[in-house]
Amino acid sequence: MNSLETKNKLFLPSVIGEKSKDLDEIIQSIDDHYRERIEQKIDNKTGKPKTYLDGTVKERVIRPSKKRLNLIQSKIKDRILSKIELPSNVHGGVKKRSNITNAKPHQGNKFVFVTDLKDFYPSVKAKKIHDLFIELGYNKQFAFYMTKLTTWKGELPQGTPTSTHISNIFFLKTDYELIKICEENDITYTRYVDDLTFSSPKNFQHLIPNLLSIVKKSGLKISYRKTDYQGKQTVTGIRVLLYKIDAPQKIIEKAKLEIDNHPSCKPMSNYVESIRKTNR
């Protein structure tokens, strides 16, 4: 699949083992193959809903695909998207990588810069996805099916098997630009879906405008509320320290309660252990 000639001849229905007639029927009735629900955005620090300055609660739209389309999208993810190589800097939606592996490379670095992509999935429009797969060397029919079967209402829906993978591939060009400037300046860079983290043993504040400029070239917006440069940072929910990484204090306290109360299921304790074992 790495060969440009092979890519150009691929017929997506055959790759995922589906009849084109069945896929065409799904595309024609695509609205019937999604659900939609609205969730409040919760502040991780307070546990309360996030609000705008006027007090309005912030919300996100979740659009999971229904069973038949979800199965097709899972095949697209497993047989096509997961075969496209991603750099080691990318941790979200990648097998054997997590928010923990995303935070670990920044351990011991004195200066940390974090930023966030605003409305990441909704900002990746259907036309961008179609053009992306043409640019990657796939034929027009392949790009047509890929776009129609993974987008809804003209954008990447949050809550499907394919959205994180496609967003990763869409951001690849930007990732490689960031990797280049970071390697040249002794900066560690990782990305976990829409969370970008940069760190270094030396002050690199003067380079932040350059980094943000590269991100903005992608056409995506930056959430300046989640943009911060300082010594001590929480990276994708993990405390990054000089000689170790650890869970936030509130998670540690919940884990202690699990141990004290002896429940059969201990998700918080297991999570803390999975973080701490990286320090051994």
Task: Kindly summarize this structure in a few lines.
This protein is an alpha+beta fold and 280 residues long.
Q: What does this protein look like?
A:
The protein is α+β, with helices and mostly antiparallel strands and 280 residues long. It is 41% helix and 14% strand. The protein has 13 helices and 10 strands. The protein has helices spanning 4-9, 12-15, 20-28, 67-79, 99-103, 120-123, 126-135, 140-150, 163-170, 172-184, 208-217, 249-261, 267-276, and strands spanning 37-40, 59-62, 111-118, 188-192, 195-200, 221-222, 228-230, 234-235, 238-240, 245-246. The strands form 3 sheets. Strands 3, 4, 5, 6 and 7 form a 5-stranded antiparallel beta sheet that branches. A 3-stranded antiparallel beta sheet has the order 8-9-10. Strands 1-2 form a two-stranded antiparallel sheet. A hairpin with a 2-residue loop joins strand 4 and strand 5 (195-200). It is globular. It starts with a helix and ends with a helix. The model has no long low-confidence stretch (mean pLDDT 92). It catalyses: DNA(n) + a 2'-deoxyribonucleoside 5'-triphosphate = DNA(n+1) + diphosphate. One of its GO terms (molecular function) is RNA-directed DNA polymerase activity. InterPro entries: DNA/RNA_pol_sf (IPR043502), GrpII_Intron_Splice-Mob/Def (IPR051083), Rev_trsase/Diguanyl_cyclase (IPR043128), Reverse_transcriptase_msDNA (IPR000123), RT_dom (IPR000477).
